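Notes from the pairing session

We agreed to fold both candidates in a single pass and log them together. This is the raw record for the first candidate, unedited. Please don't reformat it; downstream parsing expects exactly this layout.

Candidate A
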Amino acid sequence: MRRVSSYLLAGVLSAIFVVSAQHRALVLEDPVEPRGLVALAIGNANYNRAPLKNPVNDARAMSAALKELGFAVELATDADYKKLGVSIDRFVSRLRRGDVAVFYYAGHGMQIEGENYLVPTDFDAQDEAAAKYAAYPADRLLEGMERSGAQMSIIILDACRNNPYRGSRAIGGGLAPMGSGTGSFVAFATSPGKTASDNPRNGNGLFTAHLLDSLHQPGLSLDDVFNRTRERVYADSNHEQTPWTQSNVIGRFYFRPEQISAQSTLRPAEAASSPIADVNYRQGFHEARSGEPTNAVEAFTRAIRQDPDNMQAYYERAMSYVALSQFQHAIDDFGTVIRRHPYDTNALIGRGACYISISDFGRAVADLDRVLQRERDNDVALFDRGLANAGLARNQAAVDDYSQVMRRRPKWSSVWYNRGVVFSASGDLRTAISDYSEAIRLRPDYAVAYANRGVAHAELNELPRALADLDQAILLQPGEASMLNSRGMVRLGMKNAAKALEDFDEAIRLNSLLGVAYSNRADARQALGDTAGARMDLKRARELGAR
């Protein structure tokens, strides 16, 4: 059987970078100064099963509170599975290295096999096996926030798992702890195994009502805000609900300082000589954090014309070009920064990621090496260098990079997936299957991980397993021509030429330039006795350079 096609590494541009920003109500004591503030608030109440009363009110109130504190906030309410994923992906795309990011969710949640899931409004799974594919993995959200380079990732979950039919925010026992790296703070409305009250006789859920009140109190650190909230929820629930947090935050963070004045909140980066004072820069910064990269590019360009030495404007314009997939423009802007500051971590990671996107892997490795010479535990740089080393077929170097990241970020599903791709390329298919399996466990909707695991099983001649994985991949990501082509090859290997032909036909319908599908369809047609059709397909395959 001809080799079944494998898939690309998940080369997400994970390089984002640091800018200073004008904030009204944020103080971050050592080790870093305040930067961009970005938030997403989601409230799910109108469930097909077990509707809730207050989550939409909660999300709207939290959105208003965060806006008042200076955050660029987006709000999503009653999100089905598609809307939930799109909202979270957009939120992560707005983050830049050095930002403070807040994700707030009110609604049903659940835990399956030690992993937490956010429940969309169209959730209708009948058992745990189906539920994993019908809900959104919370660790996927956390991975995106951490890989963005945000200096602080705050996740607030007003959800739990107990008894969804009696006004609680839950499906079954308590939400599990979430693995998190430095700078991550996770808050749960209640302790593991307990119920979070929807508080239906009031306008907000019990936890959110007290959290909103605490956010309005000046002089409270991040920990103080949630300690105060915990005390009041515990008392108000007659000791039945105890909010619970886990923190890897270094330093003290304040949403609302004790004294707010122009003098006390200004920092050196925000002085009159700073780019922050430029109206065009401020507009560009706002547009970038609001997810409008085209407008941001225009505003940063005006700022650069006004002050060609404005390196922060070059930073931000480069990242806006990245959001527009205009990688060469981004490389040029990163290069301007690097010429001025040869070891700027953010610009080097950004340019390295852009080089990966245009397959210039050698230059990417050079940039990322410079970062890692000074910051050898920089997981974003290591992850990206793994991508570049894989692109250069330096398989052992790529495996070493990914393995270093795994030791600190074991719940990054993409690092398991990418290492699996490298093991497959090296011929170590059993280890590849193990890595793909862990990626799938962490992210059950990971279609390409199923596809590549299927490919590995096919290479080992484990065709029934290969078929099952490719069936699942196509179910999760319909309309992907390469997956259909791979399944067709597996079916052909299982002597089911008629079904294989159906897959090749559909693959060609979806992508008429997929030469290998014509070549494979020729084999299927030949097996079914259609010699003339096979000749036509072989001719077309040769024209496309496939055979």
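Candidate B (folded immediately after A)
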Amino acid sequence: MLGYKPSPESARLVRTIVACWAALLLVAYFWPGQRVVERMELYLIDWRFGVRGPEQPDPRLVIVAVDEPSINARGRWPWPRNEMAQLIRKLQAIGAERVIFDVFFTEADESTHGAAQDAELVKATRAFGEVHHAGFTYDPKPGEQLRPLSPEAVARAWDTLAIDRPTGLEAASEVFQPRGLVMPLPELASAARSVGVMNVLDSGDGVFRHILPVLEYQGHVFPSLALAVACDVMGVAPQEVRVRPGAAVALGDKAGIPLDVDGRMMVNFAGGRNTYPRLSAAEVLAAQAGSAVGAKLAGRIVLVGVTAPGLEDLRPSPFDAVYNGVETQANALDTMLNSKGLRRLAPVYTALFIVLAGAVFAVLLVRTSTPVLCVSALAGASGYVACGVYLFIYSRLIIDLLLPAIGLAGFFVIVLLVRLLGEERRRRQAQETLAVFIPQPLVDRLVTDEAIDTMRGERRVITVLFADLRGFTSASEGVPPEATVELLNRYFTFMHDVIWANEGTLDKYIGDEIMAFFNAPVLQPDHARRAVRTALEMQREIQRRHDEWAFLGMPELAAGIGISTGLAVIGYVGSAARMQYTAIGHHVNLASRLQALSKELGQRILISAATYAELGDEFEIRAQGMFDIRGVGEKVGLYSVLGPKGHPEYLTRPSIF
């Protein structure tokens, strides 16, 4: 295929544009304090989690949840600490290997029997010998006095852990240093197998993907509880752990945990909610020796957390908008135990790729034909993204996708713009040449004939649908205007999606009323059936979102729908300043009348006889009789639609008309 041969001036211009585009990408990539690009990259990481899908979780990990049945059976939360002590003894008796509490015991119980209950929890922890307790970091309020660390907590610090302080280009990397730290009760810290922090961190976009494997506070080094448990399971002593900020935490020669420049580890989530086996705390407390519950916990690492509604430690994760904190801790421990840490490629390599891609395109842009170059750009962008997905799934390596892909797409756009501008120039020259031989109006029609035909309008049989919210105007008077607007916007969004899914034409919104029609501008032989399907799906969508309407102050939101089929005029109608593609005619008015009549007849969906004749045997229909309709000279046969054939109960909520 022959290459593209621009003039030397055009070639220089193209290379300059490509160079400027690459430079702009690099500035955006390294601009201090920018968050938009990073947030988009984090979103693309979540997308890769979705592409990968769930992985097999570590079978040793089991969650014991203080869930709603537990609260109902054992009383309101927080439970007395002797209850938690009983849970520890029960887990010890049925053979659990270790117990990790995603529950904080950092304050003494000051109730009447609190001291005795604290002592019982300490006693059970010490007797088992394999119980791990948690602390947490916090940001003190201005003027707030920091809570001092107890000698017992300091004694559990990992001050023998080795930290390789970074130098040179890595000097910006660091071990995280919180402003405040709270550890378990002193006696509990002494009795526990290990203690550590259990903070899960917002990655910067509202999704919690990171934890702190190690941190420094007041001259001491403390591990995360996940790291402490992982080392305990692997038999790695604190003095065998080596931290290289910005690179990794080495657990002796057993495993490595990748770190970012802020000292964080990205959790490699195995899946969404309930990926790990979960048992109710009430079940465990009631279990007998040799029971099925005991068999599920024997030899397992048990994480205890609270999941009851209203008490849950909920945060968004890559898999779910609502994810429980104890499940995040299970994923973090799984990541460490099985060396599943996610490594992120250094930014310098991404910048190098952008520069090299720009250089390649600058050369190819003036030597390759447009089809080949466009295919190359699209193949490069898609190939790069596919490579990023492959590396994430099979090598647990994260490469930045956004700016490199945008860069390749941008080079593609540059190709199109430069060459399409040239084509536009040549088209204008051709029109000027044609004008020498034929009148200018004929030249213009060569380009605008299709638009003129559409503007002219035509008569066509269509099916028109009107939907109106019942009693909305009066009901909205008692609702704040912000909620009214939000509800209408949500309602119109869902109805719009239903109409478009059935390939209808959304004509207009009239207050809280919607008008749509079918069989124009595109011919649809089954336009009547499409309209009725749309009406049923609209009603079903309103019912399905009952809880949302209730939240917005309209618990009984309902709509009446009228449908009519017949001849109408369609086309662009309006002024020179504003025009709209719409339908006009008798059957448009009839559909509007049927929508209003649906309320009087207590029906959700009312159709005309002409529409009924087009439907075949797809729907459950009930005849309503012949009616005089205002504006119509003769009686009209009306029918109500109940649902798809064989499902007359399709619209499950009772009528409220």
